[in-house]
Structure formats: C-alpha cells, structure tokens
Amino acid sequence: MQLVLEKRAERSNTIALISPLIAIGLTIVTMTILFAILGKNPLLALQAYFIAPLTDGYSLQEIAVKATPLVMIAIGLSLCYLANAWNIGAEGQFLIGAVAGSWIAVKTQGTDAGVWVLPAMLVLAAAAGALYALIPAICKVKFGASEILTSLMLVYVADLLLDYLVRGPWRDPNGFNFPTTAEFDPVATVPLLIEGGRLHLGSIIALLVVAAAAVLLGRTIKGFEIRVVGAAPRAARFGGFNSNQLILLTFAISGALAGLAGIIEVAGPVGHLQPGISPGYGFTAIIVAFLGRLNPIGILIAGLFLALTFIGGEQAQIAMKIPLDVTKVFQGILLFYVLACDSLILYRFKLVFPNRQVARGAG
Amino acid sequence: MELVEAIVLSVLAASTPLLIAATGELVTERSGVLNLGVEGMMIVGAACGFGGAWLTGSIFVGALFGIVAGTLMSLIFALMALGLAVNQVATGLALTILGVGLSGLIGAGFVGERITPAAHLHIPGLTDVPLVGRVLFGEDAFVYFSLALIIGVWWFLYRTRAGLILRACGDNHVSAHALGYPVLRIRTLAVMFGGACAGLAGAYLPLAYTPFFIPGMTAGRGWIALALVVFASWRPGRLVIGAYLFGAVTILQLHAQGWGVGIPSQFMSALPYLATVIVLVLLSRARTGGSTAPAALGTVFVPDR
Asked: A44, A311, B71, B213 — which has fewest CB within 10 A?
C-alpha cells in the first residue's frame, strides 16, 4: 500500500479556505498527546493555552500587544514570499530597527526635546530596517548569493550589535550594570490607547499596515506584479515585469515593517533597549504569514492566534509548570500542518496498492 | 609553538561539526533536495546526544542517540517535502523552528549537568612527536570519523553506480524517473543520511566540544553548514577546505578576544557570520557561465503514473 499524490485539475478553493482550520485542529490533537506525554492533564493544559487568556481584559489586551509585531512583520514577509523572495532574517531587521530608533531616544534623553522625537524614531527605525533588508536583497540580485542564508546570517550580526550597544556605550549609568539603556523619556514612548492599560498606538499602526497591504495586493499594478512574479515567473517575464526590482522592493518593505515593529516594541511595551527584546517574533512571523495564507486579513487573524499561544504558554507555565519551549514546539508543529494541508489545495491524496486494483477515494 | 599547536587543535575541533553536517547536506542536495532544517536537526541531535551520554555514561551511545534523533527529524522533512510535495524552503524552516523547541524540551532535564568529554587518541611515541604529533594522532574519534566520512562520500558519489544515480536524481528527476529509478525513495535515503549527519554533528558539540548542554548551543552552525555546501560548489573536496577555513575564523576571533585586541568582543563574534555573507557573495559572483548547483535542487517532484 502506498500513498501517492495526484494533481487536481484546478486548485480547490474550498480547501484553501478551510485548510488553516484543519491545520489548527490537527495541531491541537498533537498537543493533547504531547501534554499527556509530559504528564499534564491535556484538557486543563488546552484550557490554559487557548481559553484562559480570552477570559480577562488584561490578557486580551496583552494578546493584541503581542500580535502587533507579529502582524506587521508577517505582512512584510508575505509580500516577499508572494514574490518568491525568501527573507527569513526579519528577526535581524526587527532588532536593527529597535537599535536605530533607540539611538534617537538615548541621545535626546533628559533634554527637553519636543514631540518630534517619537515620529523621528519610527521613521529612522523603518529606514534602518529597510536598509538592513536590502543587504541580502542586493547580494541576491547583483551577485546571485542565496538570500535565505545571507538574511539569516545578518540576524546573528544584529543581535551582537544590540548586545554591544547596551553593554557598552548606551548602558544606563544608574542601571546597576544591567545590560540595558535607561528608561525612555515620555516623548520617546509609544502612547497607550487606554490609560493604565497595555494596548498602545502600535496596534493601530498594525491595522493600518494590514489595510495598506490589502489595497496594495488587491488594487494596484505593483501588487499584481508581485503576485505574478511569484506564481508564474515565465508569464511575468513575458509581461515585462522586472523581478529583480520586485525582490528589492519587497525586501525593503518587509525590512521597513520589521524595523518599525522593533522600535514600537522597544518604545512601547518594553520601554527601554535590552537584549532579548524579541521572543523570536521574526521567526514566528514566518508561521503567521503561512497560516494567514499570505493574505493580509488572514495574517491579522493568524497573528492574533499565534499571540494567543504566546500568552497561553506563559499562563500554562505559571499555572501548570508547562515548559515555555512547548510553545515553540506547538508553533513548529502548526507550521508543518499548515504546509501539509496547503498541499491538499493542489493535490489529492490517493492510496495505491501495487500489483492490485487501484484503490479510490482515500482523501 | 605551543600556541600554534593549540590553535590548530582547536580549529580542527571547531571545524568538525561543520564538516559532518555539511557532508550530510551535500549528499541531500546532490539528490536534488534542499533541506534548510540542518540547524533544527543539529540542535535536537545535541540535546539527545547529551542525554544519551549522560544517562549511560557512554560517548558512543550519545553519538548514536544524536544520529537517531537527526534521522527521525529528517524523516518528518521527507514525509512533508517528498511525500506531500510541500515547498522545501518552508518545510526546512518549520523543521528548524520545531527543532529549537524540541531540544529545549528534551534538554531541560539536564541543563547544568556535565559529562566526561570524548577521549582523545593517544599512541605512545607517535602522539608525543613534537608539533605534528598531537595534531595527527591526538584527536577525538569524531575528527577522524568526519574525514573518513567525507572520503567515503566522495568515493560513493563519483566512483559507484549508486552515487551516479543519486546525482542523476539531483540534476534531472524527470529523466531519472523515466529510466525507472525510484526518485522519491532515493531522495528519502539522501535526506535521512543528511539528518543522521546533522544529528551526529549536533551531538559532537556537547560530547566533545563542550562537556555540557545549553539551549541554542548550535548557534547557527547548521546554517553555516548550508552555506559551506554552496561554498564548496557541491564538491566534497572543497567542502573540507571550506569547513577548516570557517573553523579557523571561529577560533581566530576567540583568540583575538583573548589577546585583548581593542575591538569589542561582539564584533569579533560576528566575524564568522559576516564571513559567511562575504564568501557567499564573492563565490556567487565568481561563478560565471552557469551555476554548479544540482539542476533540480529544491524543486518539487510528483511522479506521474
């Protein structure tokens, strides 16, 4: 008996819609087994992961706060992936954005600089993220170097640069030698939406980014070019689309969004620059992009769902002593199922019995 | 002179995991499959390898655990990328994300524990020869094994019929299929070999390089191994040179930090990663007149029946 794939005559739209749901369902089944192996009550663990965070206002705000960087980065990545350009270094672009924006915050600290500080930080962070993302993009179009490897290598470089700055020149002199900058001034901080809450202006910016991406992809020629270059490179060449230019463009956009997300995280929920500002947002955003089927609205929903797993993971750790790494395992398994289910859009599975009659109707 | 000897010894040690992982990936890629999950398979191999050695007290059992763990991880990849024809880039990324989480989960039990690292060869007389003695006759078994492995792979790829068939799958899967070769089965075996090597390379780190396990201890070595395969133009001979060059960069920056060169340590630590980027750019640029990559690398193959 053998499982084989058979190409569908045309892509199945029904499965395209429900495949993320199948993937989530399969992931939850797998997690139930994993919890049981770890000796935890699976029902209580699932409740801590997926239900408990939805039941109080603080956690709900926290989900939106966590989803903000995920959605912003994933929107940028989706443009790259649609154009078949593999930016997997968003984590580095996120960190570089955080560093560049923090530079203004650190340099204006204690001066009576005006309200221009935060906007300047956001602009500089986006520009720095875009430039950092352009390094692998230029290496790709000019020299043909694999953008996958170069963009990833630059993550480690960005991480070390941030580490150097907060341990060296930018360290808070009153910080008891902890590797962190001083707390940012109020003018260098992303304002909260609700007094005393957690939700901040960054979430609004993330929603605007989603809307802008939806317009770009659905209503503009550039968006059309991005989709064609990725889906049908030959057709794109006949159409006269410049694929190199689109690689540069999508990398720059995704770098800018990752950089923006970086400074919003630092000047918002964190409040100062320090190592470990990202629990792997740049990598989790890859999952968000695929789970959202590279579609802006899908990414918004997927970002909220992945944020839920971050918050749920923390609560499960506190309440049930479930290790935080379970969240990463969960995210990895989810991405596998998402990709596997996506395969159903183009293929149908069939069981074949060699030397016997062909069996039909499996899957 | 003692210092030179110490440096050469540590370069060999630092290069060995890169060489083993890259050897496995070279075979995988030669069959036409791009498995970007090397980092994930390595880190799981490191956690399981340490666990095995810690539980049994045997380095050999630890190495076996690492190999089995890497192979199992690669089977997930094979099922997805070959069985279900999923995009190989995305699957490889998923494997790395999963591997990082799994290794943390597996390794949580023995963070902070120590083992006796792998013994070094000692042949009385030969090992004591000044200068070259320890370098040639005083390494741990992994170092010798890695060299035997790459020679074996060279012989297999270029001197056996099976190796020729494997390369045929990597260059033109449609033709290989038409000639009646089981492309997917051959590729699955190549992916498993890559996984076994990555697992062993990961296990080398806590078994011989540092005698303890810390989460994330592979620190991007899996990705550097991937870059090495590109550096080597998919040829085993060049892979050895590349691995030792990268090992040298890693060690020299460590020594430079020790000598107190007036450069912040973080910049020195960034060197191996920057070197990877620069080497990739220079090599891709020098390669005029077509790529040396296997022609079918990373493409999906669904046999028609």
From this structure: A44
